[in-house]
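A further point concerns the way the authors explain their paired sequence and structure data. Each protein is reduced to its one-letter sequence and a matching series of backbone shape codes. An entry of this sort, consisting of the sequence and the corresponding backbone structure tokens, reads as follows:
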Amino acid sequence: MYKNLAATLVAACCFSPAFSQSPAPVKAAWIYVTPLTDAGWAQQHDQGRRAVEQALGAAVQTSYVENVAEGADAERVIRDLASQGNKIIFTPSFGYMEPTLKVARDFPEVRFESITGYKRAPNVATANARYYEGRYLAGIAAGRVSQSNIAGYVAGFPIPEVLQGINAFTRGLRSVNPRAEVRVIWLNEWFNPPREREAAMTLMNQGADVLAFHTGSTAVMAAAEERGKFAVAYHSDMRKVAPTAQLVAVTHQWGDYYTRRVKAVRDGTWQSGDLWGGVRQGMIRVDAFGPKVPQTVQDEVRARQQDIAAGRLHPFAGPIIDNTGAQQLARGQTLGDAGILRMNYLVDGVSTRLPH
């Protein structure tokens, strides 16, 4: 009798609700450099956040802060998120790199993911996407549909990531239309819809019938829709604001990466590292062609996308001549990652000079 009573007590102890609760969810946070709108850079990262929620369910608790300026304001917000008990914090903007590193030194138990940054620490990983691969493919589409042989490009800052995109777009454009040129307007900010729109209008007034951009809003797309021109959607599908103007969308897919990294924190396997993924890894996709894009152009772009995924096509295969006439890479060579990451020139075919 006593033996059975003891067994009953042990069973009651070991299987009572107090001892069978699931582990607390992993708290994960994101910080966005622009307001969260229906499309664009912040929206695409927020889709990644929501993919984490869908994949992990009750095992994760996510939050975000939007429209946070790079610099001191970013440091304040990141520090606050770390103080709130978040175990992993994603900081997707180049200007968040230094604030992330500074906060990470004070919170060694928190994991940080510096998206588009390049400086790492034991608790800071870096990751980025090979945006330039999508830009090259969009350039092919632009070269096929342009009638004026002028493409316009609204750009944020002249940093390597932006230069990679302009150069890849230009090389894709001229691979099918050698007479075409690209004109750039620099804004020196990521998000300013009125200025983005003004730049788009200026470029169209100069003869551009296809637009691309590296800024954070949908203003360029809306301007192209208004004027009956083509535009390349960036970050995400923007047919909602440009149903007929959208040529194609270069979309960024963050869900799988974010889910893997949160899982690693949950499982205790997270390690600092660096990932630069492109079409092959599913992080860059060119799709969502507009209704005015010929099927032959769509088929060609999709075929070249498969070539990039298979390693048969590289947007920066030599020769590469810059727009001052200097050779940057000889024929028969392919620009490696180190050269791409420190890119500091504009290629032949870009009529605008690099700002000093």
